Structure formats: structure tokens, C-alpha cells
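Why run this: before we spend reagent on co-expression, it is cheaper to look at a predicted model of the complex and decide which construct boundaries make sense. The entries below are exactly what would go into the expression plan.
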Amino acid sequence: MTTKRWGWWLTALVPTLFIGYFFLYPVSRILSLGLSEFSVGSTGLEARLLRVGWFTLWQAVASTALTLVFAAPLTWAISRYEFRGRRLASALVTVPFVLPTVVVGSAFVALGWRDSIWAILAAHMFFNAAVVVRTVGTLWSRLDPDLLAAARVLGASSSEAFRRVTLPLLKPALAAASSIVFLFTFTSFGVVLIIGGFRYATLEVEIYRQAVSLFDLPLAAALAVVQLVGVTFALYLYTRYQDRHARSWTLRADARRLRASGRTKVALGFAVWGTLAALAIPLGGLITRSLGTRGAYRTLFENNRVVGVPIESAIHSMTFALIAVVVAALVGVMSAAVIASRSGPFSRWFDLTLMLPLGTSAVTIGFGFIIALDWPIDLRASYILVPLAHALIAVPFVVRAMVPTLKAIPSGLRESAAVLGTSPAKMWWRIDLPIAAKAVLVGAGFAFAVSLGEFGATSFVARPATATMPVMIFRLLSRPGATSLGMAMALSVVLAAITTAVVMWIDRLQVGELGRF
Amino acid sequence: MLEVSQVTVDLGGQQVLKEIDLVVQTGEILAILGPSGSGKTTLLRAIAGLVPMSKGTIRWAGEDVTNVAVHRRGFGLMFQGYALFPHLDVAGNVGFGVPKETRREQIAAALDWVGLAGFENREIEELSGGEKQRVALARTLAPRPNLVMLDEPLGALDRSLRDRLVGDIRQLLEERGVTAIVVTHDRDEAEAMSDRIGLMRDGKIIQVGRLDQILTEPADPWVEDFLS
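The model came back. C-alpha cells follow.
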């Protein structure tokens, strides 16, 4: 018993130190720096804060509303009806969501949409539609169709039945999807930086500009504090809503979908083909543009006076991703073991702390790294910060992939092993780990994909000599001339292809659906 | 009077209802009795307008309602499993199909009929199985439909509760003077709740009549077998 206790605490120690040093400590440095900036009350802080904060808020609200509207027809189609290609449609809508934000930005630039608020909103819709389709669709397909039929028999027209029955029943999923989309767009960085330039700066972009271009660290910290408060407030509202309205409707365990006929069939066609076509336009534009620029792919392999050999960024990205996977898997497996082995306030608190990096913006994490990690040794100039930042962001994915699997291991299996005289440590090694191995692979896959596409934190800590693919794409996009633009497009296509391949591999590993956030 | 003629329904390439002819007199209670999978539920849904028919007509009071939309037919249907709205309380469920002006009174009246007076503010989840059944019945009756259709109204309840409620339902329907169709797979229930019985098998109506008539002159050996 005592050995088990010791082992447990030791296992808990590593993740605690990791999160403590790479997350809690940098965030506390941001807080103290930012709050002192507030107390000094530097000139222009308030006006800038008001302008940037207001823009961040309203574009997030507008993006969320537009995403809901845009995703509604496809959600309706694939959750209520059975038709040929339904699964394919629901897989295709997820493609934009798994693409790195830099690629999404490039795709809209490829369409010639730059420096426009509409382009930002459209890119947010493009990126987040899958969140709505997956989250709301899962619930919708499980609503008992008899409820709608009952409403119709009681005298409600089909639109009235939708408003009075379907909509209220979908409310929990709508709230969840809206909160996720709001959080993503409130903390949107890559897309806004690339499409909006500095003309349309969200808090994230402004933090980056102040810290990296203007070296006004205190102001950047003050903005980061506002950002943290905003995100925390949004999360708090969402949790409170879920607590109050968490009522379990009597759902069908399985989805029951109808076959469409007549006019419904036409509507289905419009919903599915229209949405997919809209999603295909930016990606089509990206590919066309990359192929249309003469020698765009070839020049990726040539030495460029300003950016070096662009394709080398792929090697950097892969190397960093591998390091990040190893770190995230180690920390993640230990954390999951701690969380799953015991329930109680410490476990829950531990779990919550580990999830914090997920709710924090990547820019805040990167910014925290460059202002805090000069103690006890100065890590700020080391390339190792890149994979460490990626690992920090990826740990929650590994943990989320593993905990349900570990908790589901039947206790009878453990008991029979204990009767056979197996020690707890050996038991974990022999029973839990093999069962959880697949979950580890899934988590590692996520970590790899996250690392490949990560841009927010990387833009702070990347060294010019070891630029990752997203950083290289951004640098190419910032340079004038059609050649650089073509190379950016070509590299974006390469990055998109690698990411999609990784995600497809995860999807094949996973028994369930990819739609858990 | 409800007249169902030649009603045929195809679902998923299968003929679920085959040229059904049926007449229910005004104020009469007809039971549809048959084994599970015989198409009883589909018949009710076709009459309500919830499933598209490939052939046949439905007339109410001499008027063809075949192409009238579900919500304009003025028929009531109580679903198997009740299909109560989980996001609304009892009053919200019972008053769903009632116009605003008279809603409060009609909810109170309907709850009174089913013996649940004062249940307005109860949540659906708090109710017992028997209470849910009665709320569903009240919801069906509250808008005062011309025709009431009940799909296995006692299906999910335990034996003793069923015996008690069988009489209640019949009395309730008779007092209101409504025309009604009750679907069941239980012979005793069918007899206790209805004036006449329609026997159904494989999407067809085999025989219609009072139970004693059917028993003395069964249409074929299967009917005799099924009823004994």
C-alpha cells in the first residue's frame, strides 16, 4: 500500500513540475507584469485596449453567429436524413477544421481576399463549421423523431414544430458549439494576422505586435491579462450554463434517420452540395494558385537569399513534432495514470489544471515563454522551446484520449491479477498500459498534428534558422512578389497534405468519431 | 365518420399497408388488434398524415383529407412511448396544441379528466410511468380533436395498473363522445376498451366486428388461433 502511494505521488510530480514551470509560472509572470502596467496607467493603453478589445469581441460574436447559420443546413441534412455519401459529407466538413490556421489564412489570400473584415469572418466560418456540424449533429440525430411528429399532430406547422420542439431540445449542443466557436474566434491569431494584417488586430495580434515588433512587453502583458480575463469569463459563463441546464433528455441510443423524398430531396441536395462547394472554394483556390505559379514547388528546394531553403522547414517541423510527441506522451501518460487511478478532489483539481493550456490562447503561452523562461537558466534562445510549447498544448489531447479508456478497464481484471500476486506497478505495466496503448497512439497522433500546425506560440519562440512550416509560410506571405506568394501557397499545400494524412491515420485508429473537443 | 379506403403504404421497398378499407362511425371506439409488426402503428400514422401513402384516400365527415397537412387535420394521436416533450413541464405538454386564449382552462380541464388535477408545474422526468401515460392522454385530448388515435396506450405499464386504466380510458372517451381508434396487441384490452375490433395481420385488415361475432364466425383458422 505504501509503495503504491509513493509511486502515485512520484507519477504526479512530473506532470505537476511540467505544468508548473512551463505554464503556471509564465502566466504568473504575465499577470504581474500586466497588472503593474495597469497600475502605472501608461498613455494610450486605455484607448488601444478599448479599440482592440471591442473588435476582438464583436468579430468573435459575429463569426459565431455566421458559423451557426452557415453550418445549419448541412447539420440538418446529415443528422435527420440517410442518403448516399452522408458519411463522406460529414468527413469532408471536418477537413478545414484540422487544417493549420496558417493554411486557412493562405487559402483566403489565394482567393485574393486580404485586408477585409469579410475575409476574416468567412475564414472563421470555413474553419469552424465542423464544430457545429459535429456537436449539434450528434445530438440532433439522436432526438426521437416522434417528438416532432407529436408536435405536428398537435397542430404545429413544420416550422413551428422546429421552433417549439427541435430548437429548445438542441439548446445544450447549440450552447456548447457556440462557446467553442466563440473561444476559437476570440483567440484567433493566425487567420487574423495573415488576412487582416495589422489593420484588423484582435487582442492576439496586438499582443504579438507589441511584444515582437515594438518590444513593448508591459503593454503586451496588459493585453494578455485582458485576454485571459475574457477567456476565463467566457468559460465561466459556459460552465454555469451547463450546470444549470444539464438535463438529460431521453435520447435514443442510436440515431434514426429518415429517407427523403420529393421536395425534401431537393433541399437536401442544396444543403449538402452548397455547403461542400463553399468549403471547397478556398482549398481549390490554394491548390490552383500553387500550381499556377511557375516553379512554385521547385523553388521550395532552392536556397533563397532571405528565407533559406523553404522545404527545410518541413524537416524542422517534423523533428519538433517528434520531440513534442515524446514529451507530451510521457507527461500525458503519467497524468492520465494519476487521474484514472483515483477519484477525489485532488484528481479533479489535477485534471482541471492540466486542461488549462487548452483554454489559454497559444499566443499567451508563447509570450509567457519569452518573458519567463530566463530562470533558472536562460532557455529563451534555445530551439527546444518550440517543441516544449507544442507539448504543453498537446498534453490535454493525450490525457483526454487516455482517461476514458483507463477508467473503462474492468476492475475484475485488476482483482484477478492481484489475486495472482501481481504488484500494482506491474499490474499497471501488464494490464493498463497494453489496453491504453491504442489511446496513447491516438493521443500521440493528435500531438503530432497539433505540433505541425501550431503557429501562435511558435511565432514567439521560433528561431529564424529553425523555422517551422507555419512560420515559413507566414514569412513567405509577408514578402512582396508573386514568387514568394506562390511558394507560400505550395508550402501550404504540403503542410495541409501532411496534416490531413496524420488526422486520417488517427481517425482510422479511433473506434469512435473524431468529433470530441 | 372516418372512411379509410384502399390505403397502401410502402416503406423502404416494402408494402407495410395493403389496400386497407375501414370505417369508424362517429362516437364509436374501434380497436385495432394484431401481432407486432402487422402494420397497426403505420395505419395510425397514415391516418394522421405522418407517413406518405402510395395509394388510397382518407375521408372525414365526407370530406377528403388525404392531401391535408398533418397539422390541419384536427386528429389526435397518442404515441407509443408517449413522446412527451422533455423540455416542457406538464402544462407545457398538455397545452401545446391549444390556442393561447383558452389554454389555461383547457389544460386544467384535460388534467382533471385524467385525474391529474394540479399537476401543471410538474416536470416530465419526475413523473411515474402511469402519470406519463395520463399526461400523454391529456395532451391528446386537450385540443378536443375530432378523432382520437391511441397507439398501445397501456403498452409500457405493469399489469395491475393496466387493468385499472383500461376502464378509465373507455369511460373518458365515451364521456367526451369522441370517435376513437385504439391500437393494441392484447385481446382483453381490445375488448374492454372498444365497441368493435379490427383484426390486422401482415398489413391487411382480416376481419372487423364485435369480439363475440368474430369468435363465433372467425374469418380463417389464424383468427381463431390468435384470439384463443
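Chain A is about 75% helix and 0% strand. The radius of gyration of chain A is 24 Å. Bring this page to Monday's planning discussion.
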